[in-house]
Amino acid sequence: MNIPEVLVANCTGATIAIFVFLLRVRNSETKQLGAWLYDGILAAVLAAQVTETISFLIDGQMFPGARALQYFTNTVCSAASGFVGFAWCLFVDFRLYRSTRRLRKMFFRLGIPFLIVLLLLVVNLFGTGLLFRISDENVYSRGSLNFLFYALLTVYYSESIALVYRAKRSGISVEFFPVLYFVLPCVVGTIVQGLFYGIAIGWLSVSVAFVFIHLQLQNFNTFVDELSGLFNRKYMNYRLEKARKAHSSDFYGIMMDVNNFKAINDRFGHAAGDRAIQEIGRVLSSSLPENAVAIRMAGDEFIVLLDHGSNRLLAETIAAINKNLQRFNQTTTAPFQLSLAIGSAKYDGRRIEGFLNELDRNMYADKKRYHEEHPHPEGVTP
After folding, report:
1. Which residues of 231-269 are buried (b: 16+ CB within 10 A; e: fewer)?
2. Residues of the chain with pLDDT under 50
3. pTM score of the predicted model
4. What residues have CB less than 8 Å from 228, skipping those under 6 apart?
5. pLDDT given at position 280
6. Which of 67, 80, 155, 267 has its CA 20 to 30 A from that of 115?
């Protein structure tokens, strides 16, 4: 085992991970759920590099508590490898769909393999040697089921590629989502370290992958509205153009405008207005079916686009939005209540301008009804 090589590789990897994290903090990229997942992966990578380095350094060394430390460091490092694959899949799914409703389903489906490995790690702590064993001389060796870590990462990395492929087929994904920029370096590093024990290149390759993904996501971020966490108007134009070229006959839209938004801004200030936009973003994100995206068009105007939709799915989505909006109003500590003027329409497969105009007319008809029923602003509470 080449200890200097291990130290150089993992110290370099840790430095890269910290550098990427500091870049994200500087760019204020730590506010949304996707950013938390991304930063969670970074933290797991850093923890793995530290524990793997300690494990290599104490391998075969005898001192009080050495075997316990060896078990601990290898358990943490092994758990981190599974978490990276699991969280990466969740991150990819959220970046593609920006739907917390969908993400909850993915969490439980993708979490089952990771949970099984965690349970095996707990069992392994009792000296079963299933995943790895530590000899009386404090020497690490792989167990009969150690291949499960590599199988688990293969499943997760393959699933992340499949997610992008399926999203592209359904028109959800922008063309350059950089999934391979992350997966390929990770796969190469994992294979090399799996085949040649003692070569600590696995976590270094993950850190390098983060550099690639960070640079490429700067392009993807041009399609995201920072305040609401939803997609932005540029992405809306991209989706509508794809629908026009495909002459989609099952493409639907829901246009929304926040009622009395000006009253919230005037009474409580722009910070409260910003929070209102963020809350609407959360409401929409938690209300979407799998084949829909939510977009902040401008100001307090939003739109949901449903591909491969139906009148039933349209009605269910509007009902989910209203239900989650009502839940917010019942539980919030904010000094304001939120309501939306909502208009919907089906795309006829021809002119995008006509589709947007119909959505706009239907939305303002709903807004007019709202103001007739509520002549005084209800967006604020005393």
Report:
1. bbeebbeebbeebbeeebeebbbbbbbbbbbebbbebbe
2. 30, 381-382
3. 0.75
4. 277, 278, 280, 281, 296, 302
5. 95
6. 67
Which residues lie below 8 Å from residue 173, measured CB to CB, with a gap of 6+? 96, 164, 167
Task: Give the integer Cα–Cα distance in Å for 69 and 71.
Answer: 5
C-alpha span between 19 and 15 (Å, rounded): 6
Assess contact for 49 and 84: CB atoms under 8 A.
no
Tell me the domain boundaries of the chain.
Answer: 3-223, 233-373
Please report the pLDDT score of residue 363 as a whole number: 95
The structure tokens listed for 205 are 């390759």
At the topology level of CATH, where does 233-373 sit?
Answer: Alpha-Beta Plaits (3.30.70)
pLDDT confidence of residue 382: 41
Determine the length of the chain.
382
Predicted local distance difference test score (pLDDT) of residue 376: 66
Structural tokens at position 178? 């950089």
Residue 74 makes CB contacts below 8 A (sequence gap 6+) with: 51, 55, 132, 134, 140
Contact assessment for residue 256 and residue 340, using Cβ atoms and an 8 Å cutoff: yes
Integer distance in angstroms from the first to the last C-alpha of the chain?
Answer: 70
Q: Is the dihedral of CA 246, 248, 251, 255 positive or negative?
A: positive
CATH pick for 3-223 out of 3.40.50.720, 1.20.1070.10, 1.10.630.10, 3.30.559.30: 1.20.1070.10
Contact status, residue 91 vs residue 37, Cβ threshold 8 Å: yes
What is the residue type of 41? I
| Token pair belonging to 263 | 């009253």
What does the alpha-carbon distance between residue 233 and residue 246 come to, in Å, rounded to a whole number? Answer: 20
Q: Both tokens of residue 71?
A: 């078990």
